[in-house]
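Weekly sync notes, structure subgroup
Attendees: PM, AL, DS (notes)

Item 1: joint prediction request from the bench team. They want all two components modeled as one assembly rather than separately. Inputs as received:
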Amino acid sequence: MQNFADTIPSIIISVISTIAGAVIGAAYAPLRSPARPGIHSIHFMIQVARSETDWGIVGRIVEWIRRESRKSSDGSGEGASWLLAGGALLVVVALYAEHAEAVAATLIMLAVVAYGSSVWSLMALRRQGAVGGWSVANRLILGFVLAGVGVVNAVFSVHPVMNVGAREEYIAEGFFGSSSQSWTAVLFLFLGAALTVASLLTSVSFSLASSTAVHVARGTFGRPIWRVLFYLGRWSTDKGTFAVVTILGILSLFLSTGWAAHLFVEAVGATGS
Amino acid sequence: MLEFASNHVWDIALSIVFLFVGMGVAYLVGKLANRRSSSASANDRDRP
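Output from the run, pasted for the record:
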C-alpha cells in the first residue's frame, strides 16, 4: 500500500489529471461560433495553433544562455567544469538509482492520462464536427506508438532483464563500494531511463498539443489557457521530432533492458583477459 | 503489473478523481460562457 505522504508524484499527477480532464470537458462544451467554419484536419489546426503561439520564448532563453556562456568562458576553468559535470552525473545517477520506480511510475501514469485524454477529447471534438478526416486516426496511432515505447521502456528500466540486482547493489554499497560491473550497469540503465523520460515527455507533449490545437483553432472558451498548454507541447509538433524520439525510444530498449551493459561488460572483460 | 497498481493505488485514485473534476469544471464553465454569449447576442438582436 502506498504511503500517502509521498506527495510530490501525487501532486504532479493530480495537476496533470485536472488539466487532462479540462481538455476533455472543454471538448464536450458547445463550440463558440467557430472562427474557421467547415471540418478541417488536425494538421491544419496545428498549423493555425502554431502560428498563433509563435512567441519564441525558448529561442530567447537559448540565445541568453549562449550569450552568458560565451561571456563566462575564458578557457581557464575548463578542468573544473568537467570535474563539476562528472560530480553532477554521479549525484544524478545515485538519485536515479534510489527513485527509479517513483520516476517511472509517475511518467507512465502521465503518459497514459495524457494519451487517454487526447483520445477522449479528439473523439468528442470529431463528434461535434470540429475536426475530421483520417488525420485524427493517424495522430492517435502515432501517439499510441510513442506512449507504448515509453511505457515498455519505463517498465524495463525498473525491472531489467539482464543485470538484475545491480541497482540494489549500487544503492546498498554506493559508488565506491559497489563492483565496477554494477555501477556500469546502473550507468547504462540511467542512460536508458534518460531516453525513456525524453520519449515519455514527448508523448505527453504530443498528446497535449494534439487536443489543445483544436481548442486554440476553434476558439473554445478559455483560449489563453489552451494557447499556453499548446505552447508547452508545441515543440513535439516540429517536423522530425516524432521520428527522432521514437527511434531513440526503440534504441533505448537496448539500454533499459540491461543488454547494452551486459554486452559492454563482456566486451571489456574479453579485451582485459 | 498488479504490484505496480497496489504500490500506486492512491496515485491512480487521485488521477481519476481529478480527471473528472477537471472535466466537470471545464464543461460547466464552457457551457455557461456559451449560454451567456448567446443570450448577449440575442439581446443585441432584439434592441431596436
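Discussion: The interface with chain B takes residues 1-2, 4, 9-10, 13-26, 28-30, 32, 101, 105-106, 109, 113, 117, 220-222 of chain A (CB under 8 Å).
Action: AL to compare against the crosslinking data before next sync.
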